[in-house]
Structure formats: C-alpha cells, structure tokens
Amino acid sequence: MTIDRPFTVALEEHYCDPELTALFSESERKRPPHIEERLFDMGELRLRELDEGLIDVQVLSHAAPATQKLDAETAVRMARLANDRLAGFVDLHRTRFAGLGVLPTPAPEAAADELERMVTGLGLKGAMVNGLTNGRFLDERHFWPIFARAQALDVPIYLHPSSPSPIVSETYYNDYARQYPELIGPVWGFTVETATQAIRMILSGVFEQYPRLMIVLGHLGEGLPFLLWRIDDLLARPVSGGLTFSETFRKHFHLTTSGNFSDAAFACSVAEMGIDRIMFSVDWPFASNKAGTDWIERLGLAPGDREKVLGGNAKALLNL
Length: 320
Fold this sequence. Notes:
Elements: E1 9-15, H1 18-21, H2 26-29, H3 33-40, H4 44-52, E2 57-62, H5 72-92, E3 97-99, E4 101-102, H6 108-121, E5 127-130, H7 144-153, E6 157-160, H8 166-177, H9 189-204, H10 206-209, E7 215-217, H11 224-235, H12 245-252, E8 253-256, H13 263-273, E9 278-279, H14 289-299, H15 303-318
Parallel strand pairs: 1-2, 2-3, 4-5, 5-6, 6-7, 7-8, 8-9
Helix pairs in contact: 5-6, 6-7
C-alpha cells in the first residue's frame, strides 16, 4: 500500500462485538463517545484511519473484558459467536485485517478446543486474554490445557489488561480514583495486573512444560524490561529449566508498542529483548494510528530493524 514504508502490521487493535459487549457491566461498557464509535465501527471509519496511519494490516482483538468475567457456559457460547463474526469480517477484507480470537477461559478445556477451532477452522492467528479470569491468574494449572493447545497449534496468546480485582482497587487505588480514574486502568492498575500475570507464568513452570509456548505483552512489556536485571539479581535462582527469569522472559515473550510511544521505553525494550521481539502496535482506538507510525519514523531505526518492527516480526509470529 505504501512505497516509502515497509509492510506495516498493527498487532493490538480493538473492536467490540455488540452481543458480547451487552453482557459487560455498565462501568465496563462505558467509553467516551469517540472511542465507542470506533470500537463498533467495522467499515469506513476503521479503514480510513488505517490508511491515514499508513498501516497495511490491522490485527483485531476484542476490547476488555471479553469473556473473562462470564460464567463458563455463557463464555463458551459467546466466544464461538464472537469468533465466528470476527472471522466473517476478516474474510471480507483479507488484505487488510487478521484476528486474535476470544477465549472462554472460564472453561479451560473448552477454551483449548475453541482455540483450535478458531485457528484451524476460522483462520484466526491466536487469541487474546483480557485480565484475570473471574479473579484467577492464568498460571494456575487449571488453565494449562490452553497453553498445551497453543503450543501444538504454534500460535501465541496475547496477555492484555483488564480492570484489577475490586479488592485490589479498594486497597491500592480508590483513595485517588475519583480524582484520577485512569489510575486504576492504563496509568497503573492495568500494568501491575498484567505484569503480575506474566511474572506468575514464569515462576509457575508452564514454560518448562510447554517449551515452545509464546506469549505477547503490549505497552512495551508492562514495565518488565526495565526490571529484568533487578529481578534476576534478587531472585538469585533459576526459575524454569535452569534458566534465569530474564532468560525465560526473553525466550517466551514478545512485546508490542501498543499505547507506549516512548523513545526511552523502546530503547530499553530493544536492549533487553533484541529487535526481533518487538512488534509495532497502536492500541487503536485508544491511541492514534498516525501518531504510532509517525513515532516509529522519528525513531530513525536502521532499515532492517524498521522493517522487522513495523511488520516482519509480526508476520513471522502470526504466520501472516
């Protein structure tokens, strides 16, 4: 689509399925009007802003909390319906869109089966999990059938934030939440919850059991690249198959730039992870497509590195 820019894939870009979103709580459904308009748009507006940002392919994923807070039966039913509709949309625009499906994690065995169906039957490229599953972290062995199937299918699981547990919010954030409501979400609460999910997965031994499992973290790693040296230094013991924490993190995690267009955070992430583990994302519509691609251009990356970040790494990981 462009001459002066490498093939560009935006990997964490959101939409809302109306039927699934109708099951969210009122607070979870409430978005600023301009955000809500874009989440539900599956046509002209979405495509226009893709073109304005010079993005070739947008990888769609459902906005939080998706199915993670539903009962098991409802989660299974709604995941199938939402994934069918997402795949139908992608089929209509195969040159512009791909998809990460919804997983009914409240029913892990069924979630593993749905992952296989969405990948082998619907052509989706993996799955996104939004936050905790009814208060439970994904490192619990209860959820490991999902990881077994992801490894078998050679597709990644994207760990995405959702609102923290109400207990956490009450204890840590509510003193300031009225004045600064974003504190519970993207300012800090999202980061803490999602980084904790990743840390717990590394400590759980899941990567020893599934040595080819790949996990994606947005927002340039939820702060973890900055902390890898200190975690290694203070844990002072191997955590997975004789590997240190940071070695395990570098082996099994990929990072995206979603909603974190920071030169310093990018430099830290590349220094810790290597350029092959960094993928461009916008976090649309919560961030601007054009702001994201303009920022990448300002970084002044070497041509080969620029090509990897903008699309090459995503094409390899997702088999696009």
